[in-house]
User: Which sequence fits this backbone?
């Protein structure tokens, strides 16, 4: 990949994460099994796109340019909160699925040992809030300016030569 493709990839991932964040429901009533599954799948797809690009760049026989190295560093740093968001969304999905299952079995739904559908959705909504926070961190990482190249200071200038007057005693 050339340097022109690197910024568009970071911008594209940034946009896709922002779009996903905008679709995450805030109210427990808006969370159901289908949407929770869709959110987990969308975030997995975004993560896979980033890792595929990194793998392609790193498997190239060519020297990896500095701009692409910066993009790799930026992407991998953003992938940490993305993984945290993936975990939160997956846990939310598990709670929604649990509520879905308990709603289908009347004898389990009324047990004091099992959470009801309302409780499961409330827990899922809290986990969605955590996922939203993690995605905000990932988006911020993708939007930051890449770190500049490290500056190596020039060697110290040689001292000006002063005529030597002889040994001092």
Assistant:
């Amino acid at each position: 990949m050339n340097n022109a493709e690197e910024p568009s990839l970071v911008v594209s991932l940034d946009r896709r994460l922002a779009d996903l964040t905008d679709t995450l429901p805030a109210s427990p009533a808006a969370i159901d099994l289908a949407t929770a599954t869709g959110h987990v799948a969308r975030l997995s797809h975004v993560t896979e796109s980033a890792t595929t690009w990194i793998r392609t760049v790193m498997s190239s026989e060519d020297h990896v340019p500095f701009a692409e190295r910066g993009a790799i560093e930026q992407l991998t740093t953003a992938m940490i909160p993305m993984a945290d968001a993936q975990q939160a969304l997956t846990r939310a999905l598990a709670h929604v699925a649990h509520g879905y299952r308990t709603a289908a079995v009347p004898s389990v739904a009324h047990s004091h040992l099992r959470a009801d559908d309302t409780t499961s959705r409330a827990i899922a909504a809290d986990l969605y809030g955590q996922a939203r926070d993690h995605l905000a961190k990932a988006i911020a990482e993708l939007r930051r300016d890449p770190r500049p190249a490290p500056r190596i200071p020039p060697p110290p200038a040689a001292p000006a030569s002063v005529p030597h007057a002889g040994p001092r005693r």
